[in-house]
From TrEMBL:
This is Phosphate propanoyltransferase. Signal peptide: none annotated. GO terms for cellular component: bacterial microcompartment. Residues 22-42 are annotated as: Disordered. Keywords: Acyltransferase, Bacterial microcompartment, Metal-binding, Transferase, Zinc. The lineage of its organism: Bacteria, Pseudomonadati, Planctomycetota, Planctomycetia, Pirellulales.
């Protein structure tokens, strides 16, 4: 989706809200969702409900690679729904093999399938594999290292697609309006935990119509801020308000 489509979709959402009797400026006590008399996706008691999740190492696959790895006619089998509607952890796992046969066994596949296979690791994972994985936003895999994926039936040589996923926040257009940001903006996340409070800059906004407010950080970042023991999380608009 390009910027023009994103802006149009957001405007359409705001128009529907205005028709339903809402204000285009400040949040109201009861917000409509796409013209319905209920809160937008993920909202609680008329306001955004922020969730911060650790995105552990995982793999995204194409339909073709699913069949190569798990057998002709195979499809991903949902095992556990993720917080974002329509996304899930599959029952299938693969082994990731790096240079000099260093490997990570049983890495979870996430669904649904994609147009290009992609491996998302934390920094410590990439060290274990001996792969110099760059920090990239999901889908931006040109020029990245590859690896070998091994399934129960076959293997796939990826020429590229191994990344350290950059931190980002999923949100819908009502969330974006609430925070005063747009798709592609950068935000700041503060995680308050005992003697380990951490501020993360460069949190990319990924806005669409149906997303629920959720920040994704990797396991290294989650350990660094002691997310499991956090007493408060706060998401704020970035200082420059620029797009990247």
């Amino acid at each position: 989706m390009n910027a023009t489509q994103i802006d149009r979709a957001r405007i359409e959402s705001l128009v529907r809200r205005a028709i339903a009797g809402g204000s285009l400026g400040t949040p109201s006590a009861s917000r409509p969702d796409l013209g319905l008399s209920q809160d937008p996706p993920g909202w609680v008691d008329g306001k955004p409900n922020l969730r911060v999740s650790i995105s552990a190492r995982h793999v995204h696959l194409t339909d073709e690679h699913v069949e190569i790895l798990f057998g002709a006619g195979s499809v991903l089998e949902p095992d556990k729904d993720l917080y974002q509607d329509g996304f899930y952890a599959a029952k299938q796992t693969v082994m990731i093999v790096g240079p000099r046969r260093r490997m990570l066994p049983s890495v979870r596949v996430l669904g649904p399938t994609r147009g290009a296979s992609q491996v998302e690791l934390a920094f410590t994972d990439s060290i274990s594999l001996g792969i110099d994985a760059p920090v990239r936003h999901s889908g931006h895999i040109d020029g990245t290292p590859g690896c070998v994926l091994v399934g129960p039936v076959g293997s796939v040589q990826l020429e590229q697609g191994v990344i350290r996923a950059a931190r980002h926040v999923h949100m819908n257009y009502f969330d974006a309006e609430h925070f005063g940001v747009s798709n592609g903006d950068m935000m700041q996340l503060k995680v308050t935990s005992h003697e380990c409070t951490t501020v993360f800059d460069d949190v990319l906004v990924r806005a669409d119509e149906a997303a629920k407010l959720e920040v994704h950080i990797d396991t290294d970042e989650g350990n660094a801020c002691f997310l499991d023991a956090a007493s408060e999380v706060e998401l704020t608009k970035g200082g420059c308000g620029c797009h990247k």
